[in-house]
């Protein structure tokens, strides 16, 4: 169970973290690469769970205070390798050597880091080496300081050999991913259109924007609600916080929707559309009135209907379903709200580095 608990913790924690970082990741991908493929989404999710798994397996389970013996630090980076030689002197398979297994696992633990640095961020061996060393050093220092002072002393050994082999793992991962990165970069260059500044909007892009809109409202309202509740708890106590529970939900949700309204009235596009670089093309005047229509038939109307008591709240589900269907059935994937407001949409195209830049990003000497 002790071996499964860190992994289970990483998975359970990863789900809400993924929801929280989804919008920034989408916005970053569209601005840096002009799009967001399912492959890269999968890679980002894998990176998130890898980071959480790395944290969980190197620091968890946390011991009960007073239930552990303080441990020191191993400052000789060759000690782990001498342990391998000592155990091997007794004969037997190298694979079965416990000291060798420990070193090999520490190398393998950081191989994915080098792969992610190469494939997701387009950086080579130099950055992978630095990333591997910095991440490993952060983990070792966290162990050495007893979780930065949470415990009176270290409950896991600070080992300089781990710094070396973890960094080596990141380098191995970067080198292993180099052929794949180069092939992907050349394929992306072949499909790039350097003369385009805008283009058609795909259904996937529109749906991604809608998901971002819903998350933006939900996360903003949740963050505001937590902040207000904490403030009331500190200033007035638990009873006052509980008595304001319903009002807090109403006001924080209203504030989150108001941010969407400001975005639509000022630009004609929602936060999600800005994230995926979807730009409205307005054909009706006065613009402010049709922007209100766009808001009411879209994210604003959906949120308002969802706040109504049942069974009226079911109208929010009907509106959401109609909006999704409209993405596939309207010309140019405009969607229901844009059709109601007489808007068309176009996707902005960001500059994409040329083939030589992609090749440099995949070169093993690139920093």
Q: What can you tell me about this protein's structure?
A:
Keywords: Membrane, Transmembrane, Transmembrane helix. Residues 48-178 form the VanZ-like domain. This is VanZ family protein. It is built from 16 helices and five strands. It has two domains: 4-191, no CATH class; 198-348, no CATH class. A three-stranded antiparallel beta sheet has the order 3-5-4. A two-stranded parallel ribbon has the order 1-2. The protein is flat, with a radius of gyration of 26 Å. The chain is mainly α. It is 70% helix and 5% strand. The model is unreliable at 351-367 (pLDDT under 50). Helix 13 (299-306) runs antiparallel to helix 14.
Features:
single chain, 367 residues, mainly alpha, 2 domains, three-stranded antiparallel β-sheet, two-stranded parallel ribbon, 16 helices, 5% strand, flat, disordered C terminus, transmembrane, VanZ-like, membrane, Teicoplanin_resist-assoc, VanZ family protein
């Amino acid at each position: 169970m002790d071996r499964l608990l860190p992994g289970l913790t990483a998975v359970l924690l990863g789900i809400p973290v993924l929801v929280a970082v989804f919008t920034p990741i989408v916005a970053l991908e569209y601005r840096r690469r002009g799009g967001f493929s399912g492959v890269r989404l999968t890679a980002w999710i894998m990176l998130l769970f890898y980071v959480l798994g790395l944290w969980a397996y190197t620091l968890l389970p946390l011991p009960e205070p007073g239930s552990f013996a303080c441990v020191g630090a191993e400052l000789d980076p060759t000690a782990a390798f001498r342990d391998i030689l000592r155990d091997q002197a007794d004969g037997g398979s190298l694979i079965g050597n416990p000291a060798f297994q420990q070193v090999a696992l520490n190398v393998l633990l950081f191989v994915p880091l080098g792969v992610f640095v190469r494939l997701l961020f387009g950086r080579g061996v130099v950055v992978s080496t630095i990333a591997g060393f910095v991440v490993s050093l952060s983990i070792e220092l966290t162990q050495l300081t007893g979780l930065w002072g949470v415990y009176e002393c270290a409950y896991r050994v600070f080992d300089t050999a781990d710094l070396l082999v973890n960094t080596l793992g990141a380098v191995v991962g970067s080198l292993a991913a180099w052929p794949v990165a180069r092939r992907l970069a050349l394929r992306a260059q072949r499909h790039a259109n350097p003369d385009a500044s805008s283009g058609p909007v795909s259904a996937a892009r529109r749906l991604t924007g809608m998901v971002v809109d819903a998350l933006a409202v939900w996360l903003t309202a949740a963050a505001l609600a937590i902040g207000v509740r904490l403030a009331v708890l500190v200033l007035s106590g638990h009873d006052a916080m509980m008595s304001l529970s319903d009002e807090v939900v109403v006001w924080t949700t209203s504030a989150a929707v108001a941010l969407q309204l400001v975005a639509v009235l000022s630009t004609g596009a929602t936060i999600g559309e800005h994230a995926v670089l979807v730009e409205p093309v307005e054909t009706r005047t006065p613009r402010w009135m049709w922007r209100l229509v766009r808001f009411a038939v879209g994210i604003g109307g959906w949120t308002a209907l969802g706040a109504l008591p049942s069974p009226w709240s079911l109208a929010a589900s009907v509106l959401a379903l109609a909006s999704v269907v409209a993405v596939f059935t309207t010309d140019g994937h405009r969607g229901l709200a844009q059709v109601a407001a007489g808007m068309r949409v176009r996707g902005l195209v960001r500059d994409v580095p040329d083939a030589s830049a992609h090749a440099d990003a995949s070169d093993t000497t690139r920093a």
